[in-house]
Design brief:
With 729 residues, the chain is mostly beta strands. It comes from Parvularcula dongshanensis.
Length: 729
């Protein structure tokens, strides 16, 4: 269910223990209490753990939020959009416009954002540009997934579930006191599901199989200096679902691909963090040191058909082999001086990304990295002087990227009067990105040569992006009554530019014109928060100026025979504008029955001048539904002693949206409504059993898309249902 948290909680996201009362939320790590009505920003908090059928991946939280959409790039890499802001990008070199955190640790690539969910307390969503409170800069907002912390009152649970589409799920969590003031906790989950799409032309596994395992351990030492040490490991196996090609006549939840592109997934994620918090000289101090890493090997049928237009020689498959690690350190200090409350922070990070991107036709010879037929896009990259007379078969692109960041930030509240508070924040960020790589084509005789499309030079090189930015925010909040607040805020943020991780055609790929630039957002918001009778109501009007929005631009790729293949690249448009309104309400109608809902209205427009992308002007931003609305309800009723009945349901409606900035009808997802529901019995000794269903309306939704030979889309899972049993202790 939805609850509201103050942005001050976001200033110490990794550390709070929240005590929720009717009007205040106490952030114990800062020894500060803040009434919900006093917060000049839109912040949603999802209390997790009781959703019908349980959430499986991070992308599932979007189903509980209005104004938040998620594009699941390549079917497994979530990229969040908040209030229309955020590039729909399937490459993994850059973070999304909405910064995603895991227990306060920033996740620097969209490969990490699809992690398995288990033992979570809540997810916290900030719906405005961010940078003055914590972490990294972000142009649309921030989402943090917060785990249950060890402690004297920590809960324990064991849950098992089974259902259709091969669903099997076991999750357990619990902890104990290890010594005086020292507590430990261990949590894990094993999940298996799929195939969830029906492949009508080849192996069933191409419909998507997920075999996931996760384990997390943490130790908390209480005292003058509180210490929390935690580590996690997750494995993702199975088979990545293949996309659907729009040239095929298929029913809902169907795809049609052959066996050549079906590839086992082998992804591993691991990391750890050390939190220190205490007090010195009147300052509340906090430190977060973290390490995150992954290795990833997966692929799928690139063209989404057994034989594009009936020609098997147009077949294309792809794979990604990635390795990544990141270090980060954050220091924050907060203190109150009379009517001034101040927070000052420092943030630094270093990450290293390496990727091999291979495209081939037919069955793959893994040692030679070539297929059994020529990839249709390979001949156009050989250049004016081919390195061999034999047939060119496949393309390999390698890129390595190092990123270093440093920032200083501050957020300050000044009580101008007893009812009027001024908030001022600022951030200076420095960023250096070094990239190098090459693109080669591979011949049947074993020859390898650099790509040289149009004879513009070999596709090998390096470059450096160096940038520093000032961003900030300001707000006035006026308490017009004990439980009524009006606020006006303005915030700026940005998302950095970077290198394109797609096929390197020639030397221009690594030159300045082959890079994409940073995007910036300025957001103005007028809002209200208050109580009316038994209901808590919030509303906001907002306007966002979106400069240099990053977007995947589709271009024509000429072939030697005069034909054209459509390809794309991450680039910048000129500008865009967003107008919007948002409202939410929560109330308890009677004992045991609670209802919450929210609606977000958006009007987005790309503003593009003359040039190659002039036609994009006037289009809506990708994945920006004009209307998104969420409704959730829960009911609990006691029966005989120790027994009870419960029911829950949540639904989200999204009006139609375009899958990319080009705004073509054939690349549009029409309006849909997804419904999840659960009904069950509570039993003595903390046990319960339930019957649940997700996507009860059986909607078939495009979760992302790309242009190649035709247009390919990754699809949402169909209706799933199952039984679950849980024991809480």
């Amino acid at each position: 269910m939805l609850r509201r948290l103050p942005p001050l909680a976001f200033a110490l996201l990794a550390t709070p223990t929240l005590a929720q009362e009717a009007d205040t939320i106490v952030v114990t790590a800062t020894k500060t209490a803040a009434a919900i009505e006093d917060i000049p920003a839109s912040v949603d908090v999802l209390t997790l753990g009781e959703e019908p059928g349980r959430l499986r991946g991070a992308e599932d939280v979007a189903s509980l939020l209005s104004g938040v959409q998620v594009a699941v790039a390549n079917g497994s890499q979530p990229v969040f959009q908040i209030r229309g802001i955020g590039a729909v990008d399937h490459q993994a070199l850059t973070p999304g416009a909405a910064a995603v955190y895991r227990d306060g640790v920033f996740l620097a690539t969209n490969v990490q954002t699809g992690f398995l969910l288990y033992d979570l307390a809540r997810a916290e969503v900030l719906k405005e540009p961010q940078g003055t409170l914590y972490g990294r800069n972000a142009s649309s907002g921030a989402i943090d997934f917060v785990s249950v912390r060890p402690g004297p009152d920590q809960p324990g649970s064991l849950r098992v579930g089974a259902g259709n589409k091969g669903y099997a799920d076991v999750e357990a969590a619990g902890g104990t006191q290890l010594a005086e003031g020292v507590y430990g906790r261990l949590a894990g989950r094993v999940l298996r599901q799929g195939p969830f799409l029906d492949n009508v032309a080849g192996p069933r596994e191409a419909g998507g199989v997920r075999e996931a395992f996760g384990l997390r351990g943490s130790v908390l030492r209480e005292g003058g200096v509180e210490v929390l040490l935690s580590g996690h490991y997750e494995h993702e196996g199975g088979v990545n679902a293949s996309p659907r090609n729009d040239t095929l006549d298929l029913a809902d939840h169907e795809i049609a691909v052959g066996a050549d592109g079906v590839r086992d997934t082998d992804n591993d994620f691991w990391g750890g963090r050390l939190e220190l918090s205490g007090e010195a000289g009147g300052w509340d101090l906090f430190s977060l040191t973290a390490y995150e890493a992954y290795s990833q090997d997966y692929g799928f049928d690139f063209d989404g058909t057994p034989a594009p237009y009936g020609d098997p020689n147009l077949n294309a498959n792809l794979s990604y082999d990635r390795n990544f690690f990141q270090w980060s350190e954050e220091l924050r200090g907060s203190r109150t001086f009379g009517r001034l409350s101040t927070m000052i922070g420092l943030h630094g990070s270093a990450d290293d990304f390496a990727q091999d991107y291979l495209i081939w036709c037919g069955a793959l010879d893994r040692a030679a990295q070539t297929g059994t037929c020529p990839y249709v896009g390979a001949p156009g990259r050989v250049g004016p002087t081919p390195a061999s007379d034999s047939q060119v078969l496949s393309l390999l692109t390698r890129i390595n990227q190092d990123r270093r960041t440093a920032a200083v930030f501050t957020s300050n509240d000044v009580m101008v009067t007893d009812t009027l508070t001024l908030t001022l924040g600022g951030r200076w960020t420095y960023e250096r990105i070094e990239g190098e790589g090459f693109g080669i084509h591979l011949f049947a005789d074993g020859t390898r040569a650099y790509n040289d499309r149009d004879g513009l030079g070999a596709a090998v090189g390096s470059n450096v992006i160096e940038d520093d930015r000032l961003t900030g925010n300001g707000a006035l909040r006026w308490r017009v009554a004990p439980s009524q607040t009006v606020y006006l805020s303005y915030a700026t943020g940005y998302k950095s530019g970077g290198f394109n991780g797609e096929v390197a055609n020639n030397a221009g790929h690594y030159q300045d014109e082959g890079l994409f630039g940073a995007e910036t957002v300025g957001a103005l918001e007028l809002g209200y928060k208050g109580r009316v009778g038994v209901a808590r109501i919030e509303g906001a009007l907002f306007h966002q100026d979106y400069d240099d929005p990053q977007a995947r631009i589709f271009v024509d790729f000429p072939q030697p025979d005069g034909g054209v293949i459509v390809s794309n690249s991450l680039s910048n448009l000129d500008a865009a504008e967003v107008w919007g309104a948002e409202a939410s309400a929560a109330l308890r109608l009677f004992e045991g029955f609670e209802v919450e809902g929210s609606v977000t209205l958006l009007d987005t427009e790309i503003q593009q001048g003359a040039g190659a992308n002039e036609a994009f002007g006037g289009n809506s931003l990708p994945f920006a539904s004009d209307v998104t609305a969420v409704l959730a309800a829960s009911y609990e009723r006691p029966l005989a002693e120790g027994f009870g009945l419960f029911a829950r349901a949540d639904a989200k409606h999204s009006s139609g949206f375009y899958l990319d900035a080009e705004g073509l009808t054939e690349r549009r997802q029409e309006a849909y409504t997804m419904l999840n529901a659960e009904v069950g019995l509570t039993l003595p000794r903390g046990a319960r059993v339930s019957l649940w269903s997700r996507n009860l309306t059986n909607e078939d939704v495009a979760v992302s898309g790309y242009g190649f030979i035709g247009y390919d889309t990754f699809r949402s899972p169909p209706r799933t249902w199952g039984l679950s049993a849980e024991l809480s202790f």
